[in-house]
Amino acid sequence: MGGGLLASFALITRNGIKYIFPSIESTPLRKLLVGKDDKIKIGEVKEVQVGESALYLIKNKDGYKVFSSVCTHLGCKVKWEDYRNRFYCPCHKGVFDSHGNVIEGPPPRPLDEFKVEVDKNLVYMWIEEKSTETV
């Protein structure tokens, strides 16, 4: 009985620490090809589907940015409005600029951003590898 109790305590402690300090564990990243640099124009926004999630790739004058489509307010999906050059969250009227910064509404912080890399005319983004671990 003592061994089972100790194992349960260790599991609860481990998961509690992961919850309180999520950045302690490094999350494995995966490199995903999203396009050719010379085929993407400055100002162009490309929606990239990754599993059940969507990410937005934007080519600005200063390079590429990749943003999550999840609003930082309550997790609704933002949409890119090309004619207004902004991201818009229809749930509570949150607005983000093309750099992911909040410009209007209740979102508490900018959109989550992902690393982008250009190598030999190919554009890659780095995304978190989905964990298969169950808690």
Outline, from the CA principal axes? globular
Low-confidence sequence ranges: 131-135
Question: What do we call the CATH topology?
Answer: Rieske Iron-sulfur Protein
Q: Tell me the domain tally.
A: 1
How many extended strands? 11
- The overall pLDDT, averaged over residues, is 83
Structure explained in plain terms:
The strands form 3 sheets. The chain has a 4-stranded antiparallel sheet, with no helix packed on it. Strands 5-6-7-8 form a 4-stranded antiparallel sheet, with no helix packed on it. The chain has a 3-stranded antiparallel sheet with strand order 1-11-10, with no helix packed on it. The model is unreliable at 131-135 (pLDDT under 50). With 135 residues, it is mainly beta. A hairpin with a 5-residue loop joins β7 (94-96) and β8 (102-104). The protein has one domain (28-128): Rieske [2Fe-2S] iron-sulphur domain (Rieske Iron-sulfur Protein). It has one helix at 2-20, and strands at 29-36, 45-50, 53-60, 63-68, 79-81, 86-89, 94-96, 102-104, 113-114, 116-119, 122-128.
Descriptive labels:
4-stranded antiparallel beta sheet, 135 residues, disordered C terminus, mainly beta, 40% strand, single chain, 14% helix, Rieske Iron-sulfur Protein
